[in-house]
Structures are given as C-alpha cells and as structure tokens.
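Figure caption, in words: inputs first, then the predicted bound structure.
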Amino acid sequence: MTKKLIAGNWKMNGGLAANQALLNSILSGLRGPACDVAVCVPAPYFAQCQPLLAQGPVALGAQDVSAHETGAYTGEVSVAMLKDFGVRYAIVGHSERRQYHGENDALVASKAQRALAGGVTPIVCVGETLAEREANRTEEVVKRQLAAVIHLNGHCISEIVVAYEPVWAIGTGKTATPEQARDVHGVLRAQLKAATPHAQRVKILYGGSMNAGNAAQLLAQPDIDGGLIGGASLKAPDFLTIIASAA
Ligand code: PEP
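Bound structure (phosphoenolpyruvate present):
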C-alpha cells in the first residue's frame, strides 16, 4: 500500500510571524508521521519556510507554477524557481485558479507538464461545481479535466498526484460524503488504469472541507490516498489530527 499524502494549502494566508508559529507547532507535534506531509505556501514565503522545513518530515509545496520555462511572463513563478527553494509539490488547476484566473484544462495540463519536466510533482486538481453535480455531470467533468492532463503527460502520468476537490465543498464547510468521494475516486482510478499500468501508484487526494472530525472516515475509503486541506491546515492541532488519521 502506498503511503497517504496530507498536503496543506495555505492559499493567500499567512505572514512571517504566523508562518513560523504554525510550522513550529506542526513540527513539534509530529511524531514520525506514517504518511507523507506537505504544506503549499504562498511563493514569497518559500525562502522563509525552506530552512524551517529542511531535514524535517514536511515537504515544501507551491500553490501554482507557470506553464512557461522562463521569460516575459510578469507575475509568474517558474518551476526552476520552485526548485531553487527545494519545492517538492505544486498544486495545478485548483478550482480557485480555474474560477478567478480563467485557467482551462489545456493550461492546467501544460502546467503539470512543466512541473514534471522540472522535477516537481504536480498535484492536479479536478472537481465539479454544484450545478454540474446536480445535472449528473460529475463524472463527465472530472474525466474531461483529467483526460487533458493524461493527453499531454501520458508517458509519465504515474508521477502525478490527483486531487478530487468538488468545488461546492471547498471552503464551504460542506464535505462530500465518504460514498460520494469514493465513487469519484473510483472513476479517476479507472481512468488512470486505462492510461498506465502504474495507476495504483498515483495518489488520489480528497479535498473540500476535510477537517479533524471527518478526515478518518474519508481517508478510510478505498482509493482515497490522502487529503488536500485548506482551512484546517492553518490550525496546527487540526492539521495534526488529520495527519494522525492518515496513519
Ligand atoms: C483547498 O483549498 O484545496 C481546500 C480543500 O480548501 P478547504 O479545505 O478549506 O475546503
């Protein structure tokens, strides 16, 4: 069985003092975690977080990466820049980027490709809106989103991490039921199996209001290989409880 991965997504939260306090609490509360752990921090804090996390069990992650290698792309951060700060993971295609920054499936696939080429593991987010779920389009939507990434990255698709994040569950306090999550994870696993003989190696995380109270049940489902955690990753005791639930 592959180790589960618990990744925090700090989003646009934090500050020098708050980051230090949060990481100190997480690191001092971790007891040789039985799962992989990462925190995806805002890019300006890579330089602060890298030494705090060095040699520890928590990997550094980014919340996005440019699809371009280098050059005149104001505001973007390249995969080489991530590597300079020891970044291991980069979230791509988070629904907030799709929604507020107009990112489409093709761009998300290019970002995943660029991350892989640069030696950073993309955490590829897929998920349906409430309207799409109510129209019974969940499977079609998540398969379309993942298909774009498989199409461009077929040869190394077993190197990605996938995060199923129903848009209606992100930051809303509404969580997919374990059965709803399990069903979609099963669909994604089958799609990966059709693309690679190593599909079982791909971690499929659940994200969407996962918290200290519901993590254990979600993480016990087949094909749920970890969590992408927003709000609860900003509270050390909650994040530590989720990590313990993944053991
Ligand atoms: C996320 O931002 O990826 C997320 C899952 O957020 P939350 O846990 O706050 O719903």
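The beta strands are 5-9, 36-40, 58-62, 89-92, 121-126, 161-164, 203-207, 226-229.
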